[in-house]
Amino acid sequence: MGWAIELERTASPKKKPKVSELGFGKYFTDHMFIMNYDGGQGWHHPRIVPYQPISLDPAAKVFHYGQTVFEGLKAYRTAEGGIRLFRPSKNLQRLNLSNDRLSIPEIDEQLFLEALMSLVRVDSDWIPGEPETSLYIRPYVIATEPLLGVSPSQQYLFMIIMSPVGSYYAEGINPVSIHVESHYVRAVEGGVGTAKTAGNYAAGLKAQEGASAKGYTQVLWLDGVHRRYVEEVGSMNVFFKLGDKVVTPALNGSFLAGITRDSAIQLLRHWGIEVEERPIPIDELVEACRSGELKEAFGTGTAAVISPIGELSYKDEKLVIGGGETGPLSKRLYDTLTGIQYGREKDPFGWMVEL
Ligand SMILES: *Cc1c(COP(=O)(O)O)cnc(C)c1O
């Protein structure tokens, strides 16, 4: 406690979009959180203000050197009208890990949590109540010092914006097809792959464009050194069901430690299913697919929760997984995770934080 968050309410609330038109990240709520950092003074002046454009000096460091990090989480409305967040402390911790990697000053976790909860409360009427809809929350930090020298910025803005999002699976859970990228790489160990930072996404667009042109939804990245071991898919971690066990790449310092990934592993182990975290060569998956050992594949991330993978293309080969259908384990994980988030199921791990 002890942080006084100022509140300035909007005089002109916006008209809310129709739920059918929400999509992802297109509309923003009436308010935003903002806080400044200045060298010598630290983080100061936390406030909730009407959602509005910000003005920056053209020399602001974020534009030139990409010193910026972000997070992504959701607020859910339960059938009883309650409001809940999913494991928010994990996002607070991860933002500070990203901050540390990008030489951005740490943000007090208690203040961050208070800011998050206060903002969600102020805009709580923006949390849609329809099935599988939610309020996506985007905290982020940008370096604002107007100085072209390459050194950590002495000024920053920490902001939180929020966007009501529609059901990811409005037409039912449809498996996606994924292109295994064998030319471009996203990150290497020792780089910034473990941080949620803008450059990782800008660096991935080229491959993503190529994959889209060939009709694939996303890219599966291989490791940057050998181009052999599976890392992650777009903004999701990735899992494979081989026979009776589940394998997922071990956290190796070159890709993001997803909170959904961690939650899926905990649930699978809770169900008595063996989960191996280890390096996974792409050749092993190709072989397992040919032999019928590869039963299911799915991605995990806050936006889609569980995204079944029905097809992988690697070099000139197309691998159809589980007949291109959503597998039973992917479905069970999706139903259980979303069940916990929306309060339809027991929360055995105490993941949900009630507002
Ligand atoms: C955000 C993100 C994920 C998924 O993380 P969650 O905490 O599960 O949402 C995975 N990979 C990348 C690159 C990401 O940016």
TrEMBL record:
It comes from Cohnella thailandensis. Keywords: Amino-acid biosynthesis, Aminotransferase, Branched-chain amino acid biosynthesis, Pyridoxal phosphate, Transferase. CDD domains: BCAT_beta_family. Pathway: Amino-acid biosynthesis; L-isoleucine biosynthesis; L-isoleucine from 2-oxobutanoate: step 4/4; Amino-acid biosynthesis; L-valine biosynthesis; L-valine from pyruvate: step 4/4; Amino-acid biosynthesis; L-leucine biosynthesis; L-leucine from 3-methyl-2-oxobutanoate: step 4/4. Its EC number is 2.6.1.42. The modification N6-(pyridoxal phosphate)lysine is found at K196. Its cofactor is pyridoxal 5'-phosphate. One of its GO terms (biological process) is L-leucine biosynthetic process. It catalyses: L-isoleucine + 2-oxoglutarate = (S)-3-methyl-2-oxopentanoate + L-glutamate; L-leucine + 2-oxoglutarate = 4-methyl-2-oxopentanoate + L-glutamate; L-valine + 2-oxoglutarate = 3-methyl-2-oxobutanoate + L-glutamate. It is an enzyme of class 2 (transferase). This is Branched-chain-amino-acid aminotransferase. The keyword Transferase applies. NCBIfam families: ilvE_II, PRK13357.1. Gene3D superfamilies: 3.30.470.10, D-amino Acid Aminotransferase, subunit A, domain 2. Pfam families: Aminotran_4. One of its GO terms (molecular function) is branched-chain-amino-acid transaminase activity. Belongs to the class-IV pyridoxal-phosphate-dependent aminotransferase family. It comes from the Bacteria.
